[in-house]
Amino acid sequence: MPNLFIVGAVKCGTTSLYAYLRQHPEIFFPEMKEPHFFTHPQPSAEQAHLIQYVADADHYAKLYAHAGNYRWRGDASPSYLWSVEAARQIHAEVPEARILILLRDPVQRAYSQYLMDFREGVVNDDFYTALMRDWQRSDKGWGISQLYVELGLYLDQVRRYREWFGVEQVRVFLLEELKRDARAVLLEIADFLKIDPGPIEGIDLHRAHNPHRRPRGEWARRLAAAPWSRYIGEHLFPQRWGEYLWQHFFLAEGKKPPMDPRARAFLQRIYEPEIRGLEQLLDRPLPELRLSWRPDDRSTISVPGPVEGLEIPDRP
Fold first, then answer.
1. Cross-strand partners of 142
2. How far apart are CA 115 and CA 218, in angstroms?
3. E strands of 236-278, at which residues?
4. Is the pLDDT score of 309 beyond 70?
5. Per residue in 278-297, pLDDT tens?
6. What is the mean pLDDT of residues 104-115?
C-alpha cells in the first residue's frame, strides 16, 4: 500500500508536486497520478468517460508492483481531500501514512477548474451560469457534478485529516508557496519525510506542470469531450503520448479570460468564514487564500447588474 498521499485540492499544484517528488530516489509514484481508489467514484453515465480511476484492489496494488524498496510510495489523488470516506479509509489501511495538502485561493481555484472543464468540453455555459447550476444541483459527487464550491470548503477537509492522522502526520502547503520557492517547499517535505535533501538540487523545478492553456478552437473542445477520443487518448496510447498530443495539438498558449464579478462575489461570501476558520485551525494568517479579494486584482470584468449584496441561492 502507498504510505504517502498528496490529497489535493483540485487545481492547487498537485501535478507539479507529484512531478517533483517522483524524481526523488526515495519516493515512488506510479505513472497513473490519480487513481482515486479511496474515493470510490460512482460517475454518472454522461461523465463516466471523463474520469479515470481504479476501483479494484488488485489493480490498485499492481500500480505499486515495481515500488521495490522505496521508503515512500505515493498516491496523488486530489479527490481525497473532498471525500469524507477517503480520509477514514486511508487511515484504516495505512494509519502511519503521511499526508500532503495543497491549497490556493478558493475563488481562483473554482475558476481555474471551470476553465479546465470548459476547454475539455465538460461545460459550455459561462462561469457564473455553470457555477449557479452546479451549486443548485440535488445530485452531488465526484464524476457526477463539478463541485465548484464544495472543493474549496477547506476548513472541514483539513480538520478531518488532522483529526484522523494527527497534526504531526499532516502538512499543509499553499500553491503560492510552491510557485514562489518550490525548492524550499521540497526541503520542508524532505524534513517531514526524513529523507535525504541532497537529491532536491537535481530536481527539475523550471518546467510548468498543468498550466492554463486555451483550446485551439471549438473542434478541440468537441473532440476532447467525445467518448471515443477520450478512449483512444487514454487507452490506446501510453499516458505520456496522450498528454503530449493533448497539450501540443489541442491546446495553445493564452491568458486566462477575466472572471465575472458576480461569480467572484458569490464565492467570496461563502469562503470568507471558511478562510477565517482555517487560519484559526492552522494558527497562521493565510493572505494567499485571499488574492482575489485584492482591489488591484484584474481577473474580473464589469458586467451590467448589481453585485453588492448578492445573495447566495439556496440549494435544492
1. 145
2. 14
3. 251-252
4. no
5. 999 999 999 999 999 987 66
6. 97
Name the DSSP letter for residue 252.
E
Q: Are 75 and 35 in contact (CB under 8 A)?
A: yes
**Closest to 214 measured CA to CA, from 257, 172, 183, 179:** 257
Q: Which helix (H) or strand (E) holds 6?
A: strand 4-6
End-to-end alpha carbon distance in the chain = 40
Cα–Cα distance measured from residue 158 to residue 163, given in angstroms and rounded to the nearest whole number = 9
Whole-angstrom distance, CA of residue 90 vs CA of residue 6: 12
How crowded is the C-beta side of 12, counted as CA atoms within 13 Å? Answer: 29
3 state DSSP class of 221: helix
Question: CB neighbours (10 Å) of residue 222?
Answer: 12
Per-residue pLDDT reduced to its tens digit, 117-169: 998 888 999 999 999 999 999 999 998 999 999 999 999 999 999 999 999 99
Contacts of 127 (CB under 8 A, 6+ apart): 111, 114, 259, 260, 263
Q: Name the β-bridge partners of 214.
A: 252
Global confidence as pTM: 0.85
